[in-house]
Input
Amino acid sequence: MSEPTVPVKPFVDLSDEAVHWDLGESLSYGQYLRLDKLLDAQHPLSYQHDEMLFIVIHQVSELWMKLCLHELTTTVECIRRDDLGPTFKMLSRVSTIQQQLLQSWDVLATITPYDYSAFRNTLGKSSGFQSCQYRLLEFVIGNKNADAIKVFRTDPPSYESLERALKAPSLYDEVIRLLSRRGLNIPATSIDRDFTQPYQASKQVTAAWLSVYHNSEKEWDLYQLAERLVDLDYKFQLWRFAHVKTVERIIGNKRGTGGTGGVSYLTKALELQFFPELWSVRTSM
Output
């Protein structure tokens, strides 16, 4: 004997829902999010189908980076005043955003070499190398490179924001200052330094972190901060690796549109570490 079938409703019954059909003077969903501007920002320069994907992926990535900068800027402020509680949530959020950025390469990799070559010339000299937000992220976290801002000279607002970030203490600089304020033995050269220069790892800073790890119960908040920083660094390294492999998959060893060597240039960044002592301390434990 067959089971009785349950009739499928052709639509959701809204008769018992108090839907606001007339918004009156209230903001609508589209108005609040400014979707008219957001969804009108995708203008392919060719007739190639996949160019829309290429544009959307990069725009979405820029939005995620904007949120990362929002979270990290407040994280730095909290660390300056030794208020670590809120930083754990914000750094965890950044880590989750990084996972979204990492997965975006999987979507971009669905573009085949033939598909990309069909519209690549329309990009001209535009390149992710010119992403102000990406460079700000690197500067804020701790990878300073004064030469990298030269490409922004024709964009004064971006150049000025990058110059400020270049001269300011990074997230890691502020963390090291916090270790010193907490009584850990931090060399003066790691605190009073030229912040425009790349950070140089210190054996004394490694020893300070080793003390934190060996006394994790007493220094619980510093220990938690250290592990979240490692997660941030780890995810960034994964992102860089996925970037290299996606570029290699799509254009092989061609030069990048921004003038770099493409894969050869991106590979140089694979061994960069924002927080070197937090990696070397693992060998010492």
Residues 135 and 162 are 8 Å apart (CA to CA). The two ends are 69 Å apart (CA to CA). DSSP finds twelve helices and no strands in the chain. The mean pLDDT is 94.
